[in-house]
Write a structure and sequence with these properties.
With about 400 residues, this protein is α/β, with parallel strands linked by helices. It has helices at about 1-5, 10-25, 50-60, 105-120, 135-145, 155-160, 170-175, 180-190, 195-200, 225-230, 240-265, 270-280, 300-305, 355-360, 365-370; strands spanning about 30-40, 40-50, 65-70, 80-85, 95-100, 125-130, 150. It has a seven-stranded mixed sheet with strand order 1-2-5-4-3-6-7, sandwiched between helices. The longest helix has 25 residues, at about 240-265.
Amino acid sequence: MAELYGSWEESFGLLYNWRAEVMKKMSNSVIEIDVVVEDGMPHFRRFFCALGPCIEGFLEGYRPYLSIDSTALNGRWNGHLATACSVDGHNWMYPMAYGFIDSETSDNWIWFMTQLHKVIGDLPLLAVCTNACKGLELAVKYAFPMAEQRECFRHLMDNYVKKFSGAEHMYPAGRAYRREVYEYHMSKVLENPDVKYYLDTYHSLKWMRSGFNPAIKCDYVTNNIAEVFNNWIKDIKDLPVCELADRLREMIMVLWYKRRKIGQRLEGKPCQHALALITAQPLRDVKMEDFVHEYYSVERFKNAYKRLIQPLPDKSQWPKVDLSHDLGAPLGKRSAGRQRKNRIKGALEGGGATNKANNEGKETEKEKKRIKGPTKCQKCGGLGYRKRKPRKNTTKAWFPADIGTPT
């Protein structure tokens, strides 16, 4: 690992050289590195990156929707990879910006969202969806006070079912498009007076479709776009930070190329549902543009991916940035032991101590179906017996009688 990527301590300082090379190739990019000084020594703290083609493509071909989340890194530094993703006209994930923070604190999220605000500014329409993270919710309100704040419905329900029973009306209430349907199901939910206090206190953001602004043209009730990004990059989360930042750039570069090729072959027809409605109109001269929003046009899709994300040379050819002091590794301490690759599942997902306690003493279906193989002797490798009970040598003259026993 050290020969391939360099040491972990050097990777934080290499971010300055990487930023200089990226700015040389894509000058409209926004890359910020934040440090903290301890005993006169600067230490890495936070990082933010929004590549120029991603910024301009978002502003020219975007849907006014952002999904914000972070995933834990599993290398030697136990920080977090924060991301901001949008969606294009095909409902595909559109990576907008990414960064590194040491933990999901309000201060770190405010810093990340402030950098994101510098990139896209104040948009006339914008919806920001987050998980059940109070620090992030405050940061979104601070950086984008005019945006429509949405909350992931799945995370809401994960918390809801821990306190209340009978969630059969919550799901249709959250997914309903009509306000009347939402109010009907909520009247059933609010028969328990504690539910209203709980939702108003802990889940006051928009989580129901009927409350979304229809002009945003995005009706997602979950934060799955961010989860798609987290799954997309799960195999590279153990890399040193400089290599991780560049590998993300490479992955976005390949993604842009593939979608640029797709955009060249699009025919400009809407989905089958829109075609069914358009062709059923009694008028003769029917224009598709009157029924399909501009966000879904081929032109905007092409605008989102028409710019090139430039490749970078080897790190030996990057500009050498002279720092007054060597940049030290983050001050946060890494937990002992080998870092996890997969996240820890909650009790409701089939993992965690609570689930184990509930299933204690119960034989699972997998255990019931388990079929053991033949016993194997640890000494001689023979099958059908163990070491403590060796089988007698039953080798007999299996040769023909006229040959005799071998010597």
